[in-house]
Every structure is written in structure tokens, then in C-alpha cells.
Write a structure and sequence with these properties.
- Four copies of one chain form a homotetramer.
- Chain A has helices at about 40, 50, 75-95, 100-105, 110-135, 160-180, 200-225, 245-255, 270-275, 280-290, 315-325, 350-375, 380-385, 395-400, 405-415, 425-435; strands spanning about 10-15, 25, 30-35, 35, 45, 95-100, 135-140, 185, 195, 230, 240, 265-270, 290-295, 335-340.
- By secondary structure, chain A is an alpha/beta fold.
- The first copy, chain A, folds into two domains: about 30-375, TIM Barrel (Alpha-Beta Barrel), CATH 3.20.20.150; about 380-435, no CATH class.
- Chain A has an eight-stranded parallel beta barrel.
- In chain A, helix 11 links the parallel strand 13 (about 290-295) and strand 14.
- In chain A, helix 3 packs parallel to helix 5.
- The longest helix of chain A is centred in the last third of the chain and has 27 residues, at about 350-375.
- Chains in contact: A-B, A-C, A-D, B-C, B-D, C-D.
- The interface between B and D is medium-sized, with 35 and 35 residues.
- One cobalt (II) ion binds near residues 296 and 339 of chain D.
- One cobalt (II) ion binds near residues 232, 268, 296 and 339 of chain A.
Amino acid sequence: MANYFNDIAPIEFEGPDSTNPLAFKHYNAKEKVLGKTMEEHLRFASCYWHNFCWDGADVFGGPTFNRPWLQSGDAMERAKQKADVAFDFFSKLGAPFYCFHDVDVAPEGDTVKDYVNNFAKMTDVLATKQEETGMKLLWGTANVFSNPRYMSGASTNPDPEVFARAATQVFHAMNATHKLGGENYVLWGGREGYETLLNTDLKRERNNLGRFMNMVVEHKHKIGFDGLLLLEPKPQEPTKHQYDYDTATVYGFLKEFGLEKEFAVNIEANHATLSGHSFHHEIATAFALGIFGSIDANRGDPQLGWDTDQFPNSVEEMTLICYEILKNGGYTSGGFNFDTKLRRQSIDPADLFHGHIGGMDTCALGLKKAAAMIENDFIDNAKSKRYQGWETDFGSKVANGDYTLESLAQYTEQQNLDPKHVSGQQEMLENMVNNTIFR
Amino acid sequence: MANYFNDIAPIEFEGPDSTNPLAFKHYNAKEKVLGKTMEEHLRFASCYWHNFCWDGADVFGGPTFNRPWLQSGDAMERAKQKADVAFDFFSKLGAPFYCFHDVDVAPEGDTVKDYVNNFAKMTDVLATKQEETGMKLLWGTANVFSNPRYMSGASTNPDPEVFARAATQVFHAMNATHKLGGENYVLWGGREGYETLLNTDLKRERNNLGRFMNMVVEHKHKIGFDGLLLLEPKPQEPTKHQYDYDTATVYGFLKEFGLEKEFAVNIEANHATLSGHSFHHEIATAFALGIFGSIDANRGDPQLGWDTDQFPNSVEEMTLICYEILKNGGYTSGGFNFDTKLRRQSIDPADLFHGHIGGMDTCALGLKKAAAMIENDFIDNAKSKRYQGWETDFGSKVANGDYTLESLAQYTEQQNLDPKHVSGQQEMLENMVNNTIFR
Amino acid sequence: MANYFNDIAPIEFEGPDSTNPLAFKHYNAKEKVLGKTMEEHLRFASCYWHNFCWDGADVFGGPTFNRPWLQSGDAMERAKQKADVAFDFFSKLGAPFYCFHDVDVAPEGDTVKDYVNNFAKMTDVLATKQEETGMKLLWGTANVFSNPRYMSGASTNPDPEVFARAATQVFHAMNATHKLGGENYVLWGGREGYETLLNTDLKRERNNLGRFMNMVVEHKHKIGFDGLLLLEPKPQEPTKHQYDYDTATVYGFLKEFGLEKEFAVNIEANHATLSGHSFHHEIATAFALGIFGSIDANRGDPQLGWDTDQFPNSVEEMTLICYEILKNGGYTSGGFNFDTKLRRQSIDPADLFHGHIGGMDTCALGLKKAAAMIENDFIDNAKSKRYQGWETDFGSKVANGDYTLESLAQYTEQQNLDPKHVSGQQEMLENMVNNTIFR
Amino acid sequence: MANYFNDIAPIEFEGPDSTNPLAFKHYNAKEKVLGKTMEEHLRFASCYWHNFCWDGADVFGGPTFNRPWLQSGDAMERAKQKADVAFDFFSKLGAPFYCFHDVDVAPEGDTVKDYVNNFAKMTDVLATKQEETGMKLLWGTANVFSNPRYMSGASTNPDPEVFARAATQVFHAMNATHKLGGENYVLWGGREGYETLLNTDLKRERNNLGRFMNMVVEHKHKIGFDGLLLLEPKPQEPTKHQYDYDTATVYGFLKEFGLEKEFAVNIEANHATLSGHSFHHEIATAFALGIFGSIDANRGDPQLGWDTDQFPNSVEEMTLICYEILKNGGYTSGGFNFDTKLRRQSIDPADLFHGHIGGMDTCALGLKKAAAMIENDFIDNAKSKRYQGWETDFGSKVANGDYTLESLAQYTEQQNLDPKHVSGQQEMLENMVNNTIFR
Ligand SMILES: [Co+2]
Ligand SMILES: [Co+2]
Ligand SMILES: [Co+2]
Ligand SMILES: [Co+2]
Ligand SMILES: [Co+2]
Ligand SMILES: [Co+2]
Ligand SMILES: [Co+2]
Ligand SMILES: [Co+2]
């Protein structure tokens, strides 16, 4: 089992002309782009759950993957074997970070005490693994959606004891994340939502969610955790409607409960598109609202209405994402996490590497193309020119509140204002982006 | 022209057994339901624009309707003829309210002065018409999206002079609405959004939109208008993305600019579904957030991705809408407006009546069925039982903030909490709703 | 286990005023509608799989249902217990039919021989159960999508040995269906499709699918099975694209392989909407193409992009479905099957009954409302009037091919034809439907 | 007017390093790729309608473009001016082909005779223009959807006289296309569909559509037109449902009426995605069914549910399209037509060039990348290996019909077949595509 990936050597950068499928063509960790290494810019992380806890089952069929560590034996033993395999993979891949849920790494056991003990032991195992391999933790989180007790939500459950069980998991997961030097802590409200409005008290559930998030903030400060707290929006699936629908919805929630300075968002590409937005839109909106945090880079399928969590493979899309991030100063503690699932038919050990290599090369290309866009910043120039009226005396006064509706109407009538419409030049700008990508 | 609807007599209530297509089967204005008349509950309004300004053209074809008042002649003359026809229709239909945009009722003219003069004259015409017919104005609004000058937005336009032109229209439209006794004022940001992020400064446009809305609030108070200010969410169309995407997004916007006590939402059924939500969801969310205002009852087609603005015809859906409204105390100044378009093939004068009669009967049935649900409120009972844990001592403490994450984790571990999951009974509740509707 | 439903008595018809949730309000099996009993019209069936093989797990969480017969013990013993519970449920519900997949009722075992033996034994068990309870089999089918060997398709698998394994299952499932007096045999190509075109030979897979279906036809005739062979369209899920996308696509496939007289379609409401069509559209299209067979009545959620398989609860929709079926002569060997899943939170034994009762009452109401529509057939009248031109001498000649493009152009020019457009009266017809439903 | 594009010089190829927005970076007409010039491979066409007949109006607003030739004056005069401007544009752009509808180029007039005369005159004008400029006609078509008479369909209209008017237009448009040396003739059934099933006789309309298409085939042979007849699928918009929904649906229709050897499809990227398919899927399906003809390259917006008809700008997508076409032997008489609309805000004359230049460069890059894929055909290799079992003796026998269901089941049981599942390698193949594109 420890030898699950024995046939696979650590992945190296071999450049675009390499035909070795198990090598990077574009991701060269130490190569500098705009003054920082790719590794520092991109801050890649792999995930524990889809890679090491999922067996390939879907709603219409059973396990297709051969994952020996998921099979019979003592639960703690299996958890340790899983950690061995996971860190072997992480190290060979060469992404600097990983991410986990509490119950990915430790068995839940039969009682809350089992849970606490198992998780504590496995936290020590992870600490040792981190030391041995140099891997770092991008973020930790608690899975408060898989156990049947959470079928009707965690902090939004009709039963306060379920809220309490969820609080217990988040308490321990935050502590473990802090102990392991995690750079962020994530909350994804997997079942914080509803199946039907007929049995749902929206206002109460929202208030309880607000209370829970305030408890998380208080605890963060109490333990001195200085990473970001991140909410991960998703519109639906598994539930019909989830409260953290998209970035704009999360922003409203944060404002309602006075949390907008305490939380940022972890934006997933696939959740963006499920919510009716482009991935780019969600990133740009998060920056505009001041709540950008981190990214789950996994994409969806444009024709499918569920979360396929595929590896990113569009350089065209990723270039705009990287441009947006670079323009806004880059990641602070966030990074590109791969919350990615292999296709269920990709059953070979090597497939796990293929997926990640492709995803990392896609992001690396996106970064390089975005850097080229910034070096000749036609986007910025076009925007400056387009909005220049707002930098005039009149524009500034309007923006700054020097006019009332009435005084502005009077001005308009007196001046007989008749502004002309001006081309938005969308096609030309799209061409210029492509000309940068395909040079 | 004044005789356009001459063949059609005022619409009367004839009851469910009537086979007269030009009669109400269920809407009986003076019939009491839960202590108020249907008219008082439902507060129906017809719109000026789709009914009297649209000629039946769509993107792939020209006018199909014969609307004499849209054809050649002096613009003010045509505007007056349009008013004659419109009020003839309104009166015969028997809905107590109507709604309009400034440029629906008056010609824009060539200059801003023309606009102001024409609109002032037509406001007087409308005042006279209201007096003659007893019609009331549910809300007024300004069309700041059709003129080419608004192609890149109104208050979010790159050009501050366009902002100023929009302010001028809104200034006059608010004044006219106030003068005509309008009960609300609506803002729909038809092109307040973007076509491409490549040429868009999201943050600046958002700030300008915030400034504009604050100007509207100031003006409202200045003129002593005491109706509601309403924002109408729509996710996209005509633009790729609109800033007032859905109710939750509008809420976040209002909170950002300190406007959440000054604005409510005008929820359109078709806009709800275009944004990925059920109509019911948008209504329930607006109430949960304290920003419910009014409704545009027009629905979409479940298979189509654009705004078809069809007349509501699902009693099953409308029953839940009416239940939600009744449970929350009913409309204050809002009402059910029909922002509805005939199908382009429905070219007969009578078709305008068929559409409205069907829509009004659908709402009337929804109201009666909802009243029956409230008389035996199994929904309320089911919710009370489901959330009863939150009314216990422990539940209240959790909700009220008496626990920290840590103290709640300690309690959970000490008590070895192991809550059981309980059926959500969705199917049974759905059956009970149907049993009420089909009794 | 045999006592799983002991608390529940057989479901009786108690009429619309009953408040007993475990009674029919509208489905009265022996009540006559248009000369046949409801039971004869509706031909209800329950399914084995979602009701008795599913444990409540979804992609994000584990089992929520307590299904003792799915738990540990000898596989054949468990299969027999499952059959006991299933037939207890079927009998108490009072639907005359059931449906199953081979592996729902018998353990697959380790080898193909195990499979054959287990299935043969369980077929005998089912025969006995049918005799004891009077239950009949609406259709049987083979599950050739859940076992990992089918991950890349069954008859469209890249490996012909997988095709052979699938053929073996279908051979035995057809024989069992025939032996049990099944009235139809269904094929749902769960993974007959592709995940990516990059590794897919569309033409070869299509040909293999065609060959497989021809083998099925040959076998049907060989064994003298005289029920319908049914293909069940579904556009996607589990795979990205499925070859039996929708009714029109299936029709093209059948025509290509000369099968259009041998197969009909089993239309599922949820699959219709996933493919971008209304449920009504799929039914009407199947009749227009002469390939209507049977129905899976389970609906989707209008906001969700996956197969939720919910119980039907819209009488408004079901009325049009029943109208279409009645107008076309009713079911022959098909019926309304409930390929329905409980919501994952509906964990009580009674919930299985609530779901089915609601679904059956919805269909029963749909049937009665449709019968009322037929008694005063305004739809038929409107269509006759609308197309009357095609019954004239000129219309008949055009339709029958008496004109060429040229001679018709000449006629048009000579006659200077200038046809006027006529109202489609959609709103009025929609009102008339509602007036029939809500009388 | 003839000087509308005076500021713009003919577009030249300047290579990827050019920063001139009005130059090709990748489309080099005479450059050879796999033995043919780019011009011969790509066979670009511009369209008359969106470029020269549309004024920028959308459903929510009026004209934004300044198109002098659409404004007042004698209709035939304006048509000639339009032709001047159009051919000036076509010539400067350097695409070898154009496409038109009858009513794009000639005024409809008041009577059918006017139509015939005007169209005849303008056909002569076009012939002269073609001669002067060297432009060729990729295809012609008739617009039988914009005039109000077609609001309920053309060949599927309830009124046979409308069928006759449509036949007249198609008769003349086919003749004109033939006369102008057009290489194909296209039929897009803009309103051949329904708004509501309540007033629609599906079977009759389908039969009339079938009759119409047979008339078209007969006429083609009669006049000796040897180009392809092309049907353009579209699922909806303007109507709720269109009969030519997608390629698979069209195939079924053609088979029903014995037309599958007479028609091919003109696949539009945006129509593909509106119908729930990828553009690639539609192309691959058309080749698999033997009905591929030509392409409208205009794409949609992934978040919008209507036909935005944008210029193609994804090289990643276009590479797979070009690969599919090259593998199947390239275009015969078809080509890449731009049925593209400028964004409504792109109001400058230069914007028309920007859009087309970007689209042509995108296709040119796609072609070159596809050629590189074919030179090292890992896709073909992967497929050969994946399906190799079907080339064995056993596989061939199964595919060729040497087994019955029974004999194959017997073989499976005797051999105790237990095939193993094998990785589909999707991620690796996706990486290899990207490695080819970004080298
Ligand atoms: Co994620
Ligand atoms: Co996801
Ligand atoms: Co509206
Ligand atoms: Co609307
Ligand atoms: Co289904
Ligand atoms: Co089904
Ligand atoms: Co199109
Ligand atoms: Co097209």
C-alpha cells in the first residue's frame, strides 16, 4: 500500500517539448514570473478527500477504483496507511500544500469521544508526515455534512444538539489546523440549506448560521489563529438550495451578521458555474467586495448540472483568473487548491498524477499569459480611457455626492446634456487577450 | 382607436361554471377572504408598456399586433390616443391599479427639455384619466435602458453625463409618481451590469450605483413621498450580468450602501427562475431579510432561458406565494402587477383580456387556497414541531450566544450527545398542500 | 423485517375530505372514468430499486434510511427478506404492478454462474409472491450499469466481453420477465454514452448498440414474448452524454437500425426535463412518431440539474399528460411506473407510503380532469378550426404532393396570395384548461 | 455610404507579433497546412443579415448602430447601397465567401410580385458585385420567419397559403443561389415549431415539413443544382420548441421522410449549446450519422440562455472542431460561416472587422493545432488501443451478428467471462491535447 505509487517517480519539469506524460510542461516551481517564483504565486494544494477517501462510486454504480487502504482492517490502521499513501503522492507531485477534512484523516468512531481521540492521534501523524516531507497545510476543515446526523444541516439543523455536534467538530478541526500550521480554515456548508420551503424556517436557520460563524470568529481570535477564515459558496447540491449560494449572497450574509471583515470566500470554479456565473465573475466580484480569499480550481462540465469537480484544463479561462489575482496583489494566505475528482473511469494510479499535472500546467500557463497581459496592460488602459469622464471635475462631483437628484436634473436641463454612446470594443479586447495567449 | 376595445364589455365575475371566456371565474373583487376583500388582498395592476407600447416584434421578426396608436402621426397625439386606449382597457378589466415608465406615456422628444415638457403634459393627462376612471397608480418608474445612450448602463455608465440624464428622468418620474398618488416607485436596472469584464470596472460601477440610490432616497424624503422604493432584481438579459441579480444579491448591495431600511424588492416570477431560484424562494427570502415589497407576477417558460413574461397560470405555485404573503401580513403598499407580455401570436384585442383574466383568476384561486391552508395551518404546525429543540433551555442558550465553540464542544463531549435524525416529511407535506388545493 | 410495515394498514380510498394522510383522496381503483376503471386506465407500478435497494446515501453522505434487509447476513437470505418487505409494501399500497432489475432481486454473486443461479432462484420466489399477493409485473429489466465492469458502457463498451456479460444479463432478465408474465421489457442505457469524445468511437458504439437491440428483438420473438420492448431515454447522468438522449433521438436510432416497429419508449418525466423538453412534449412527440409505450412518472426539481426522481405532485401538469394519453387511446401494455426516490430526509417507513399516495392521487386527479377536458373537447375544436385550411381542396393538394415548388410558386404569384395571420389564442386555451381543472 | 469603411484598409496577415488590431495574426490565406491552403481548408464566409441588416436593437432597446443604408429613402436604392457597403466589407476582410437571405438583399415590397421583381433585380446586382470583387456565394437561403405572416411557422403554418408563400420564396431563393453559383442552399426553420402544444397538431405539422423538404429536393434536381441542401438545427428561440432541435433530431426527421441522402446539416455552435450539447458533440454526431455539411461558427455565452451569436474566440474548442473535420476529410462544399452578431455596444465600423478578424484567427489557430494533433495522432492511437477487442475474432463475430442473445449468454457462461475494467485515461488525453495547443 505504501508502495501504491511505487512505479511513479517524482514529477519533474521537462518543458513544453517533453512527451513524457508524467512531467510538467509548464509548471516550473522555481521559475520567476513578475518577480516571484511560480510556487509562490500559485500556492498549489492537493486534497485528501477525493484523492484518498473516494472509491469511484457514483449514484448509479459502485466503486471502480482499487484503493487498498479503504478496505477491511482496523480503522486507525487504515487511516495511517491512507496517510502514508497520501503523503507519498503529495511529495511526488511537488505541490507545496495539502488540505483535509477531519473525517478524511481520522475515523469518526462510535462516540464523540472516539472522534476526539482518533482525530488527535491522526493530527500527530500528520504533523510527523509534514515534518518528514516538508508538506504544508493550506487549510483544514470539518466535514459536517456526510454523517446522517447532518442530513438536515449542521448549524442550521432543526435540532440544536446537531448544532452542538457540528460545533465540536469545528472546534477540533480549527485547533488541529492551527497546530499543523494551516494557513487558512475553510467552512463549506454542505447541507446548510433546504430541500423544501414547506418544512423550513428560513429566518431561524439564517440566524443560527450567523451565530455559528460568530462563534468561529471568537474561537479564531481566542486561539490566536492568524490565517483567513473562508466560506465556500455553492448554490445547490447536495441540497436544493444552499445559503452560501454565491459570492454576492455570502457578502450579504456577512454584512447582516457583522462578519464582513472576518471572513473571505473560497471560490470554486464549478460552484461558480452552477450558480449561473462565470468563474471569472466570482473572482472579480470577491475582489470588488473585498472578500477574496482562496480558490478551488476544479471546473464543471458546461453541459452538466452537477458538480463534476474536474481538473482545470482551460488556459484561456485561467489566464483571466490569474490576471485578476495578479492585478489585485496576488494571494495572501490563499492558493489554488485542487478539490478535484478523477473521472470514475480513470482507475490507474498514474491517473491521479495526470489529473494534477494537467491542472498545474494549466494554472502555470495562465500565470505566464496573465503576466504578459500585465506587462502590456491593454485592459487597464482601455478601462482608464473608458471611465475617464469620472475623473473630470464634473464626474468626481457626481461620484462624491455633490449633486442631489434635483440639482443634477437642473444641471442636465440647463446644459441640455446629450451624451453620445461610445463603442465598448468587446471584440477587439477579446482579440487582444487571445493575441497575448497565442503568441 | 378609442374604440379599439369597443367589442368588449367590462369583465364581470360569473363564477367557476361560466363558459364565457371574457368573465372572471374566481376573481370576485368584493368577496371577502380572511376578513378582507380580494381586491384589497391582491391589489392587481396592469402595465402600460407590454400592453400598449409593444408591437409584437421579437428578435427574429417584425410587428404582428395591429396597434393603431403606435403608427404615424404627431407624437403627442399618439400618446394621448394611447392613454385613451389604455384607460379604456384598464377600466374594462377591473384591476384597480396600473403602472408605467415615463417614456411609455410621453414621447422622449429630441432634447431633454422636450422630454420634460412632454412628460409634464402627459402627467396631467394621466391625472385626468385617473380621476375619470377611478384607476390608481401602483407604481411609476423611469425607462433608462431603451435609449441608445443607455446601452452601457444608466447610473453605472462609463460616462457621467449619462448618469446625469438618468438622474433627470428618475427625478421627473418620481415627481410624477408622487403627483399621481403612486403607491410605490420602482427602479429596474435594465442595463446596470456588464457585457464583458474586460472593459468593466466593477467596483466603480457598484459605487456609482450606490450613490445613485442614495440620491433617490434623499429625493424621496425631500418631496415627502411615502410609498416604498423598490428595486427589481433580474440576473441577466439584456446584459450578460446585472448587478441586481436576485434578492440576496440586492440585500448585500443595500447593506453595503446603508440602504436596507430604505428599499424593498419588487420580485418578478420570471426573474426569479432566470436567476436559478423558485419564485417561492425569492418571496420567502425577501421576507426573511425584511425587504419584501411588491410582485411582478409574470412567469417564464420552464424550458426557455429568456424572459418570456407570460401570464401566471399555475394555481399550484401561486397558492404557496399567497400563503407566504398572507403569513407575513399581506401587502402594505405593494401588489400583484402584471408585467406580462402576450404571446406574439395572440394578436386579437380580446387576447389582452384573456391573458389578464387568466392571471387574475390564478391569483384569486391561489389566495383562496392559501387562506384554506392558513385556516388549518399544518405548515406552521410542522415547523413548530420540527424546530422545537430550539425552544428548550439548551436550544435558546445556543441561539442566544451563551456558548462559545469551546464550551459547546465541552458540553457535547461531557453529555456524549448523539442526536438522532428525524424525518423531514417532505412528501407528506406536499400531499397536504395538494389536498388543500384539490378539495 | 417482515414486520417493517406492520404499523401501516392497507391504503384505502377515503375521498377528498379525509384528513388521514395514509389514505387515497382521489385514487379510487374501481371508480369508472370514461368507461374504464381508474385501475385499468392508470396501471400503476412501484419499483423495487429505489424503494428497497437504496439506503439513502448520496454523493456527499452515507445511508440515512434504516433498511434492515440491506444489512449483514447471507446474501440470498437478505434477498428473500427484501422480497417479503417489498411485496408487503406493494400489497398494502394497492398498485397492481411492480417493476424490477435483475440485480435488485437477486445477488450478483462472484461469477456469472452464481448470477444465473441466484437469479433463477429468486425468480421462483417472485413467482410465488405474485401468486400469493395478486401482484403483476409491469416490466422487468437488467441492470447493466452499476457493476464496475460496466463503467464504460454495456453494449457500447470498448471490450466485447463486457458486451457479452450484458447480453447474458439481458437474456436472463428477458426470460425471467416472460416467465413472470411481465407485460413489457425495458432497456435503460445507463452508461451507453460517453464521458469524453477524446476516447470515444461514436460510430462503432452506435453500431454495437444497434446490434444489441436487434439481438433483443430476435430473442423476444424466439421466446414468444408479446409485451412491448421499451427504450428509456435519458440525456445524461451518470455519463456526460447518453445515446438515448430523448424521444426524437431514440426515434432516429430506431430508424437507422430498422427497429422502429419493434421498440417503443418508456418516458420519464425527469429525463424529459433534463433533456430540455417538457414532460408533455416528450409524450406528444412519442405519439406523433408512433413509439409511445409507457411512463416513469417521477419528476425533477425545476432548479436542479440532476435526476431527483421525485414523486409527481403537479395535477396541472399531469392533466395534460393524461389528456394526451386518453386522446391517443390509452395505455396498451404500458402504465404509470413510479421510478421515484424518497427525499433522503424522509426516513420513516410511512414516508414510502406518503410518496406513493401523493403520486397516485396526482395521477388520479389528472385522469379525472383530462376526462372532463375530453367531454368538452375545446382543444380538439380549436385545433380543427386552426388547421381547417388543410382540409380544403387547395390544402389537401399541397399536403398530398400535387404541387411542386415551382407550380406552387406560380399559383401563389398568379393568385397574388396574401394570407393574414390569425391569433393562436394561447392565453385563452390555457385559461380553458385551468377552468376545467379548477371547477 | 459607399465610404462607410473608407478609413479601413484591406486586412493583411501580419503574423503573431503584430500589434495592429486590424491585421490577421494567424490567418494567412495562402499558407499551406497538411497540403492545402488555409483558405481552401477554412472556406470562410461573412453574412449579410447581422452585419448589414441589423441596427443594434434588442428586446429592451432601440438601434445603437449608425447604418445609413437602413435609413429613409427608396427601398431599392437602399438595397443597392447596402450591397455596395457589404461588398466593400467582404472584399476588405478577405474571406472568400458570403451568405444571404432573400430579404436581406432585396425589399419585400407589398405584393408577391414586388418581391419577385425586386429579388430578381438584386440578384443581378449581386452577380455584378461577385464578378467585380471575386467574392463567391457559400450559400443562399430564404427568410420565412420575419414577416408577420410567418408568425406561426412557414411550411408548418396552420394556413396552407402561408406554406405557399414560403414555397414561393424558397423557389426564388434556390434559383438565385443556383444562378449566383452558390455552393449550398440552407434552410433554417426559424418558426417551424410551436409555442404551445394546446393549439398544435404535431403530426400534421411534421408531415407538412416533410412534404416541403421533398419539394425542395425535387426542385434541386430539376434545376441541376449540385450543392448541398442543408438544414440548420436549433432547439428553440424564437419559438418554444423547434422541430430541427439538434442533429440527432434532424436525422430522425430525415429518415422518416426518406431524405437522409439528400440533406446534410449546417451546425451552429450557439445552437449546439442551446440544445444541451457541446459544439464538438454536434459535429462528431453529424459525421457519425453521415450528414455533416457546413458550420455557422458563432458561439453563445455560457451563462446565457439565448442566441448571442458571438464571434468564436476559443482556440481550445476550435482545435477539436478542426480535428474532427480534418479527420473526416475536410469540407466538401461547406465552410465556416460567421452568422455572428456584434455586441450591441460595438458601434464603430472597425468593430465589424475586429469581430471577424478574431473569429478567423481563432479558426486558423484551431486548424494549425488540429494539424499538429493529426501529425502525431495520439487520439487515434488511444482509440485503436481502447477498442482493439472488437478487432479480434470474437469481437468481430459479435459485431457482425454471429451471436444471438442466447448463444452469447451460453458462451459467456461456459467461458465464465469476467472482463476487467480498464482506465479511460481522460485526464491524460486532455493533457495531450493541451500540450499540442500550447507548445
Ligand atoms: Co470545493
Ligand atoms: Co465542488
Ligand atoms: Co418586471
Ligand atoms: Co421580466
Ligand atoms: Co430518473
Ligand atoms: Co426511469
Ligand atoms: Co444563432
Ligand atoms: Co446560424
